[in-house]
Automatic annotation (TrEMBL):
GO terms for molecular function: protein-glutamate O-methyltransferase activity. GO terms for biological process: methylation. PANTHER family: CHEMOTAXIS PROTEIN METHYLTRANSFERASE. This is protein-glutamate O-methyltransferase. Gene3D superfamilies: Chemotaxis receptor methyltransferase CheR, N-terminal domain, Vaccinia Virus protein VP39. The keyword S-adenosyl-L-methionine applies. Keywords: Methyltransferase, S-adenosyl-L-methionine, Transferase. Residues 3-267 form the CheR-type methyltransferase domain. SMART domains: MeTrc. It catalyses: L-glutamyl-[protein] + S-adenosyl-L-methionine = [protein]-L-glutamate 5-O-methyl ester + S-adenosyl-L-homocysteine. Its EC number is 2.1.1.80.
Length: 292
């Protein structure tokens, strides 16, 4: 196929087939007004793979040894990966304060042993969200804890459906154009300068992180680990409401007692669940699990 212009238009039946394939496999719902986004990206992939009709490409995704690999490449094209460091500062502040409270509480109660905080970033894209949260967790005040001879450990797990996005996240190399929202002192402390305007997150932070490929739509069947903070922004906005509710229920079941769930402003409004209580803040949407 020589050029995208040569691809025929897609009729509404065919569009619905693609729409439901993507929804069933990822949860992402392509509204009718995103048809041109679908066509542009299908054209790119079909050209690369030598397919001349939507139907033959569609069929190829459902059979044959390579179909899973092909699907992984297509999903990367059909999902939006836009992100940036410290994207939603009000929500990030809430996380920092929550972690500080965990430490202060352990100090006041003079519990024994280290304090441990586990953070889960769902739909982490290329890693900026995870490293922003890691910088904030590194910056909490642990002096009182240290006076008691105790350590603070934290870990962050980023999950995403896109393998290429996760590969970038693990590499942790960003051009300076992407670092404008990182405060200069954090850039000095947590990044190494490489050649040609690139920076890499230092190992002291990278060693706290782990990036895992997973589909949030399939959380029911994945192991249940508990997190002190679950952070999910700009992911569920692409899903239909009923799906969002089921996924948020899964998040709640993975919150430690007293854990904090932070959602993006439009992710799912007014979550109501017996185990959680809304945090009263003006600028973000967050919930605390009972029992902390
Ligand atoms: C717009 S980015 C948001 C990145 C980051 N959370 C932020 O707010 O800056 C959405 C991410 O969700 C991921 N995503 C979409 N559907 C997913 C699914 N079913 N399971 C896991 N990740 C998914 C995409 O691959 C993409 O990287």
């Amino acid at each position: 196929m020589a050029a995208y212009e040569e691809l025929p238009d897609m009729d509404s039946e065919e569009f619905k087939r693609w729409q439901s394939l993507l929804e069933q496999r990822t949860g992402v719902w392509l509204a009718e007004n995103r048809k041109s986004f679908l066509l542009t990206n299908l054209a790119q992939r079909m050209r690369e793979r030598g397919f001349e009709s939507y139907q033959s490409y569609f069929d190829s995704l459902d059979n044959g040894v390579g179909s899973a690999l092909e699907w992984a490449s297509l999903v990367d094209l059909l999902t939006v990966h836009e992100t940036r460091f410290f994207r939603d500062m009000a929500s990030m502040d809430l996380v920092r304060n929550h972690i500080q409270k965990l430490i202060n509480k352990a100090v006041n109660q003079q519990q024994e042993g280290p304090v441990n905080a586990q953070v889960w970033s769902v739909g982490c894209s290329t890693g900026e969200e995870v490293y922003s949260l890691a910088m904030l967790a590194s910056d909490v005040d642990t002096s009182a804890l240290q006076k008691q001879g105790r350590n603070f450990y934290f870990g962050l797990t980023g999950v995403d459906i896109s393998f290429p996005a996760l590969a970038q996240a693990r590499e942790a190399i960003y051009h300076q154009r992407k670092l404008y929202s990182v405060p200069p002192e954090m850039l000095d402390t947590y990044f190494d300068s490489l050649a040609d305007g690139y920076y890499q997150v230092r190992n002291q932070l990278r060693h706290r992180t782990c990036f895992v490929q997973a589909n949030v739509k399939e959380l029911e069947s994945s192991p249940k680990q508990l997190y002190d903070v679950i952070y999910c922004q700009n992911v569920l906005i692409y899903f239909q409401n009923e799906r969002r509710e089921k996924i948020v229920e899964q998040f709640i079941s993975r919150l430690s007692p007293g854990g904090l769930l932070v959602l993006g402003p439009g992710e799912l409004n007014n979550v109501s669940h017996p185990l959680i209580e809304k945090v009263s803040t003006k600028h973000c949407q967050a919930y605390l699990r009972a029992g902390g």
